Amino acid sequence: MKSKRHIVISANVSWYLFNFRKNTIKKLISMGYKVTIVSSRDHTSEKLASLGCGTININLESSGKNPFKDLLIIFNLYRIYSNISPDLILNFTPKINIYSTLAARPLKIKCINNIAGLGTIFIEKNLLSRFVGCLYRFSQPLAHKVFFQNKEDQSYFVDNGWIKKEKSIRIMGSGVDLDHFQIRESNDDGITRFIFVGRLLIEKGIVDLVKAFEILKKKYTSIELMILGPFDKKKKKQPSEEDLNRWTEDRHISYLGFKEDIEAYLGESDCIVLPSFYREGVPKSLIEAAAMGKVIITTDNIGCRDVVDDGLNGFLIQPKDIQGLIDKMELVVNMSHQERLEMGLNGRRKIESQFDEKTVIQEYINVLEEAFPND
């Protein structure tokens, strides 16, 4: 580069960027870019700063629906960008994709956005989904490029006129660090260990999974279920504290809460289960588990199906099909330890060929450098 370009990377919370985009940040810094993080501060903010980037706090409720607060977010982002004058902004997470793009437009700062799934908003057509659709329709054409993690979301935006096809790019999720997430065999001790990793949203199938497990446990006593993910008391569409307490009264079910060293728990497991009917991007937990050689059970649903070749490295079920879930979990229980390892190796090979994080990062760099043609 002729000069040291200034890149802003923005998301609703810092932990998302540290957990999912840390290596992207490190790569950009190693290439000589100045990087500033704009996100809500949390326990990972200092870790982000230690990578060599600046950090700026913005208060943002990812699930808030107050339009006046949202207008204030746009103004605050505009003020921040005016003060620091970045050359380009990489946006992640839904609200930031919209509001950061709108804030950057008057300043003529290019934005590259990342659509990592559409969540629960578009499961049903209602006033809220129409409103959010209008925000996407107004904001995304202003972006320089928009990345999509699955072809269904890309088609949804293009077909609705929210983005021109030539501005859209499909990538394979956020990728996985293959050096960090390596094959790790579980103990061959006669116990089949299932694990759920993700936010405890009903739409991610956690309630269905527990129901299936409780039924399966009546037939098989040598099974365990680990539940790993944050529990947010403010969220409505999730199990209650009473539900969690009741589930974990069973010695076969353990709730681990939020963990940063997810690989330690994936390593202990035989099979990851995500019976999601949420509009996922490509679930990070599934590609990390597959990279470690774990069998996958998930739904034949947007984003989830991209990680599984049915019968080869895992199994697909229909969303909300509890009996189908029981059947596939029972298949895993009755597999030998060696059969699980062989299925897991198929998953590792799939991740190496399709979901290497280095390839995903290079896609971002290619588009970023194309935005600066004179460098």
Explained architecture:
- It is a single chain.
- The chain folds into 2 domains: 6-175 and 356-370, Glycogen Phosphorylase B (Rossmann fold); 192-354, 3-Layer(aba) Sandwich (Rossmann fold), CATH 3.40.50.2000.
- Helix content is 41%, strand content 19%.
- Helix 4 (94-104) links the parallel strand 4 (88-92) and strand 5.
- It has 13 helices and 15 strands.
- The mean pLDDT is 91.
- The protein is globular, with a radius of gyration of 21 Å.
- The protein starts with 5 loop residues before the first strand and ends in a 5-residue tail after the last helix.
- With 375 residues, the protein is α/β, with parallel strands linked by helices.
Shape: globular
Number of helices: 13
Distance from first to last alpha carbon: 5 Å
Mean pLDDT level = 91
Output the CATH homologous superfamily of the largest domain. Glycogen Phosphorylase B
Q: What is the class of the largest domain in the CATH system?
A: Alpha Beta
Any idea what the radius of gyration is? 21 Å
